[in-house]
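Tokens in:
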């Protein structure tokens, strides 16, 4: 039987691309192909941009409150289709169904936050900047924006940007990850139901050629990207060359420090989730565990015991503890890092390599894996593994933890468990990553705060969601006026 075909959504119509390159989408739990997607061409991108440009003419004149009302309806459509979206997400991405539900909830929270545009998008005025002369800064939408998304959060990540872009009066083109195009297809079916004016939102599928067509298109004003650091750097540079606004969020290597005075008695399960949630495929996953001093031995015992209890399996089955990795290629990459850690001399205390799930012989499973006695210069302590692999770097002092954080190539997030206000203050004051947790695992900022790291984890000035995002999607036109 032919696999279902994922289509583009252009100018309010579902369309098949004429492209010749076809990608297959597999269920990561079974390895079975479940859908196929044709990679779009330059003509598809041109068509989407034309539709979005045409729609912009009326959409920018639509009052912000009317635009926000579309978001209220979008929220309702998402709530009605909540479970179906979550199930589609687990089916193509592999994460456990509760993680998918949490992700869809976070997506909806962005829609909710963006409905505040009538306040959040306001400009400002000052009378009499010189006698009889008034000045105002008016926030104006700019035209067509585009989003390029990664595979690990197929529902939420595009919605860190899209609702803010359109409620500000811009029109939009989304390119989901070619590995997981089904979730946004479900989501765009909801948008179609809501009946946004044609061309306000568009979706094209594909891989790097489509990305390049977007980056080089003269009629796209700005790009929001989330993905790996090498691609983020590339996107940032190429958008600079073509004069586009850009926000490009990249990879991570997050450190979780544990001070000897940390109150962890009931916190071990949430600490474990920080590392193994979404099978470690999160830019906010804990990656390095850094216990300080005498806390290490007892912590390692409890942490390893809790991690070894995680039931790995098909994310569709309720109460599975951890799903597969998203693709066979990525599973092999993660296994390669485990081999590397052994070769580098780290102590493998929990080995997830031979992870068999009964009834799922072809699934892309890797079990929870923990390396102890990792040193900061090992490859496994430096590169982003993006899987259920924890590197334990034992530290002597808080200063060691801070140095460990600040010498990673990435600066996305870090956190510290401690009962000392002084230690907490020093940590949050001195670490370079711009998302910090205190006595909380690597926790994601909610939609009303900005999301994004520093250093090699983020290129550009304005982060995802939060209040500042309205600056990214608008130009502040300054009008200085005098009337005689
Ligand atoms: P990726 O960089 O491989 O792909 C991301 C997007 O870029 C996809 O849509 C893909 O089609 C496109 N792309 C890939 N290679 C390209 C190229 N050479 N030229 C042009 N476009 C290209 O990332 P991924 O593997 O899908 O996602 C995982 C990565 O995303 C991890 O590094 C993770 O840390 C990162 N991530 C970061 C955040 C954050 O907030 N910083 C959030 C989620 C994921």
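Residues out:
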């Amino acid at each position: 039987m032919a696999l279902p075909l994922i289509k583009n959504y252009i100018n309010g119509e579902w369309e098949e691309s004429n492209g010749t390159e076809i990608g297959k989408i597999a269920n990561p739990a079974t390895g079975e192909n479940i859908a196929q997607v044709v990679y779009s061409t330059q003509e598809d991108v041109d068509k989407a941009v034309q539709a979005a440009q045409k729609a912009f003419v009326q959409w920018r004149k639509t009052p912000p409150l009317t635009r926000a009302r579309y978001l209220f309806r979008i929220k309702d459509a998402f709530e009605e289709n909540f479970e179906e979206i979550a199930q589609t997400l687990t089916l193509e991405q592999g994460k456990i169904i509760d993680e998918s539900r949490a992700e869809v909830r976070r997506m909806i929270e962005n829609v909710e936050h963006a409905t505040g545009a009538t306040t959040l998008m306001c400009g400002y005025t000052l009378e009499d900047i010189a006698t009889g002369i008034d000045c105002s800064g008016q926030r104006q939408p700019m035209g067509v924006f585009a989003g390029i998304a990664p595979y690990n959060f197929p529902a939420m990540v595009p919605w860190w940007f899209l609702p803010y872009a359109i409620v500000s009066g811009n029109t939009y083109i989304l390119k989901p990850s070619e590995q997981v195009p089904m979730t946004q297809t479900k989501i765009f079916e909801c948008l179609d139901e809501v009946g946004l004016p044609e061309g306000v939102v568009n979706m094209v599928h594909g891989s790097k050629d489509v990305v390049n067509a977007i980056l080089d298109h003269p009629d796209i004003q700005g790009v929001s990207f989330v993905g790996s650091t090498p691609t983020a750097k590339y996107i940032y540079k190429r958008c600079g060359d073509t004069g586009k606004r850009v926000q490009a969020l990249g990879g991570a290597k997050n450190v979780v420090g544990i001070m000897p005075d940390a109150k962890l008695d009931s916190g071990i399960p949430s600490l474990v989730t920080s590392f193994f949630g979404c099978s470690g495929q999160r830019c906010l996953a804990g990656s390095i565990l850094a216990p300080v001093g005498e806390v290490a031995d007892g912590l390692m015992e409890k942490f390893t015991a809790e991690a070894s209890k995680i039931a790995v399996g098909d994310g569709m089955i309720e109460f599975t503890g951890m799903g597969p990795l998203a693709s066979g290629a990525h599973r092999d990459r993660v296994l390669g890092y485990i081999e590397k850690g052994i070769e580098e001399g780290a102590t493998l205390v929990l080995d997830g390599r031979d992870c068999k799930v009964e009834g799922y012989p072809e699934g892309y499973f890797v079990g929870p894996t923990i390396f102890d006695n990792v040193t900061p210069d090992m490859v496994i302590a430096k590169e982003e593994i993006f899987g259920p692999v924890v590197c334990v770097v034992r530290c002597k002092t808080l200063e060691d933890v801070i140095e460990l954080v600040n010498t990673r190539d990435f600066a996305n997030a870090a956190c510290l468990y401690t009962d000392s206000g002084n230690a907490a203050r020093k940590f949050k004051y001195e670490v370079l990553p711009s998302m910090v947790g205190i006595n909380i695992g690597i926790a994601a900022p909610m939609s009303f705060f900005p999301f994004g790291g520093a250093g090699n984890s983020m290129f550009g000035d304005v982060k995802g969601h939060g209040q500042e995002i309205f600056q990214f999607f608008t130009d502040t036109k300054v009008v200085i006026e005098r009337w005689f």
